[in-house]
């Protein structure tokens, strides 16, 4: 379970940063930044992928209520297609960190890529399983993006976005073949190009 050992060795205040949605064929990429006080942090924080939908939703509310500061930000499909997914992820992370109501002195960032953020950073591979702050960020990033994709399912019906959230799935492939791409599909992605040219 993630704890605050990594945070304890960093200049304060320290924020955890994580993203959701780098892999899907459709929809934006989201990122969250969270500053926690170990004394008031919610119990049960973990990598969002290890939690049930209901548990993520419950922890989302607790994180927002108990965090010193938090922010969720996005990079759009247009930004993903123009910049590439790595740079768009960095853009979403920067927006999240800059959107915090408390300016962090340090950021713990999930993964191994050193994005250009407005404070000193440390990358942490599998950080959402090690750092409580990164775990909290992973939960906020995922719940926000999942909720947006459910909304997009109503705006662009027929693709099943509410179920697969834009990721590869048989129903998604079939919908693309039948309906063609929607305005929120990542048109520069090889799987989309290959499907549409096949």
Characterization of this structure:
- The protein has 198 residues and is of the alpha/beta class.
- The protein has one domain (5-146): Ribonuclease H-like superfamily/Ribonuclease H (Nucleotidyltransferase, domain 5).
- Helices cover 43% and strands 16% of the residues.
- It has a five-stranded mixed beta sheet, sandwiched between helices.
- A hairpin with an 8-residue loop joins β1 and β2.
- α2 crosses α5 and α3 (77-83) packs across α4 (85-98).
- The model has no long low-confidence stretch (mean pLDDT 96).
Brief summary of the model shown:
It is built from eight helices and five strands; from the N terminus they run H-E-E-H-E-H-H-E-E-H-H-H-H. It has 198 residues and is an alpha/beta fold. The protein has one domain: Nucleotidyltransferase, domain 5 (2-Layer Sandwich), CATH 3.30.420.
Give me the secondary-structure topology.
Layout (H helix, E strand, L loop, with lengths): L4 H4 L5 E7 L8 E7 L17 H14 L2 E7 L1 H7 L1 H14 L7 E5 L9 E5 L7 H24 L5 H4 L5 H10 L10 H8 L1
Parallel strand pairs: 1-4, 4-5
Antiparallel strand pairs: 1-2, 2-3
Helix pairs in contact: 2-5, 3-4
